[in-house]
Give the backbone structure.
Amino acid sequence: MRCSEAADQLQLYLDGRLSVERTRALEAHLARCASCRIELELLEEVVRHLESLQMVAEPADLSLRIMERVARTPQQQPSSILAQLRPSPGELLAAALLATIASLGSLLTQPALLRLLPLEGGPLMGLLASVTHLLQSMDATTLTLVCWVMGTLVGICITLLVVGEELRSRWLRAVWERLPVLH
Ligand SMILES: [Zn+2]
């Protein structure tokens, strides 16, 4: 008898469900195979442990209560997934704002357009000017990369805004759990 064959029969052996012939063959294998003896001891340990656990009596009215609970649970509407995907007015507004900011951001890198805007002076203009200067000082490859990263971020934000509350919180939780820091 091979070890794999013996391992398959150990549970039946413990349960007393092996034929006399098979019991003899298994015992003969166990007598000369230490690893299968260890396997058997572990299995016996598990069985003892399970038997020592108190059986919990189920309440007499358990099935009745389950049926009541099921009856009270509101039926899932087939349209609920679509409803979940439909953005609320606030989410649409935020998505539109983000898109506007993204478009303005790319427009404002054009110095000719910038000069036309009534934004002379003020801290906002100073910030815009330095951002514009930074963007202009980059070479084409870096600029493309920056645009790509910003576009991706905006895309992610818009997607998150549009998918609805439940999917968004699931996404955020998934990202949070994968962060290597903070927890
Ligand atoms: Zn063996």
